[in-house]
User: Which sequence fits this backbone?
């Protein structure tokens, strides 16, 4: 977020809403958490359809030339999990092709299934579609799945589908978000090591 999403947001606001206040990084995180960036762009910045397309192109330009780093130890955990017959699904508001690129470049493997930014809003996180497709594809039950996220969309998806949810607390230190998620989540993981021990231990 600090290296791609937030700078892209600044660029878009300067171009499309030059008189609007630029959110601080923390304010941006909070807007992303609730009500979500889609709602923020449409309802607070009042971007129309054409402007939303320009905003998306600006973000895509920022994302396509950068190789985002994974948190230390996270890829090692995923590989260990995969080697123990774990199934890895990514549900993100990023583009599927960029997610594939980033995993290929950094992890040398691709997740078992990727749900990215779909044109059909009903197929985007936090839609139930993602969980239903995952269960169908891999013949799983709700109890086989844990959804993790550092934002509200994952929590909403988990609650709507009757799936356990874990908040990942290593992505940011914004107290407003952390306090809410601590209260609402089934599990609260402060570190990748704590998460690893929970899953594999």
Assistant:
């Amino acid at each position: 977020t600090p290296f791609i999403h937030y700078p892209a947001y600044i660029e878009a606001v300067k171009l499309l809403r030059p008189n609007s206040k630029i959110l601080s990084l923390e304010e941006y995180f909070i807007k992303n958490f609730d009500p979500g960036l889609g709602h923020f762009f449409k309802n607070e910045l009042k971007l129309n359809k054409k402007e939303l397309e320009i905003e998306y192109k600006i973000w895509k330009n920022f994302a396509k030339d950068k190789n985002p780093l994974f948190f230390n130890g996270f890829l090692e955990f995923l590989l260990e999990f995969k080697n123990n017959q774990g199934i890895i699904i990514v549900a993100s508001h990023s583009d599927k092709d960029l997610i594939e690129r980033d995993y290929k470049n950094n992890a040398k493997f691709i997740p078992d299934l990727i749900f990215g930014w779909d044109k059909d809003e009903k197929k985007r996180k936090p839609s139930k579609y993602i969980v239903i497709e995952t269960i169908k594809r891999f013949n799983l039950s709700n109890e086989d799945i844990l959804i993790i996220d550092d934002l509200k969309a994952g929590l909403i998806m988990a609650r709507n589908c009757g799936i356990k949810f874990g908040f990942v607390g290593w992505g940011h230190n914004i107290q407003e978000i952390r306090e809410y998620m601590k209260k609402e989540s089934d599990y609260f993981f402060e570190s990748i090591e704590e998460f690893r021990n929970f899953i594999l231990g």
Remarks:
- The first helix runs from residue 5 to 16.
- Residues 41 and 47 are 6 Å apart (CA to CA).
